Amino acid sequence: MWKELCQFAPALGDWSEQSPPNNLFITIKDELAAEGSFILHFLSQMYMRGGHRVVLVSLSQSWTHYSTIARKLGVTGPALTSGQLSFIDGFSCPFVWSEAGVTPAPSATNPSPPTEQFSLDPSIGLKPLMQMISRAVQTRTQEKCLVLIDDLTALSLSVSPQEISDFVHYCSSLAQHPGTSVAVLWHADCVEEASNQYLRSIEHLADVRFEVMGLETGYSRDVHGQLLVTAVDGRRLTPSPAVRVRYKITEVGVKLFSHLETRT
Q: Which residue in 125, 181, 131 sits closest to 158, CA to CA?
């Protein structure tokens, strides 16, 4: 996927397993008509297959879901359980506060990576989650690391828009650490307007923005949606012209089709 996408959007540079994104804050915005988590999966695949570290913060899916997709994408079991991947589980019990650092019992058929469990307590907020992420990133600072936040929208159910904004600013600052990139996803049409305004306002922090949209013509078997890619020129600190491509998700990859238009 990435080689082809970089050809459509040269401003991205040359993303590959040997040369993944470095010190970038990446935002992914999608909608009900076109779900954007496939970008997270393929970012994770690029890092894992290149031997780099991944910290996955799961707020909307289980470990079983992610491990199944990883194996389909060619990421083997040992890579998932050897410490190359750190998993922060905010999905299993999202609203019952428990002691930080609890590790669920692994399944014999689906062993899990090093795991911390995050349960959201509105009276405490997101500071414990930030601390978990920081610990995971600092485990092996000499290696390139990708932090994935799979659903900011889930946080809007229990914390204020301002707290979400503060958390996103933390993620943006984390991407300035040597060798660390951060990617966050949210569903633009699944949050209240106040939260959506905050989420839209933090897009200006992004070095790369992905916007996943449905087709204007509706459902199609051959094309699943559109992807709008905007990369910030690091020298001029201004966005390059956005590039729009069509995509189709297959069992083991993503097919990209010629862009329809560019816009500034």
A: 125
**CA separation for the pair 17, 147 (Å, rounded):** 16
Cβ(217)–Cβ(33) below 8 Å: no
What is the tens place of the pLDDT at every residue in 152-209? 888 877 788 888 888 989 999 999 888 999 999 988 877 666 666 666 777 888 999 9
Query: Residue 231 pLDDT more than 70?
Result: yes
What values do phi and psi take at 117, rounded to 5?
A: -110, 130
DSSP state of 258: -
Q: Which long-range contacts (CB under 8 A, 24 or more apart) does 152-155 make?
A: 152/59, 152/184, 152/185, 152/186, 152/199, 153/60, 153/186, 153/187, 153/190, 153/191, 154/59, 154/60, 154/90, 154/94, 155/59, 155/120, 155/126
Residue bearing tokens 């992807």: 227
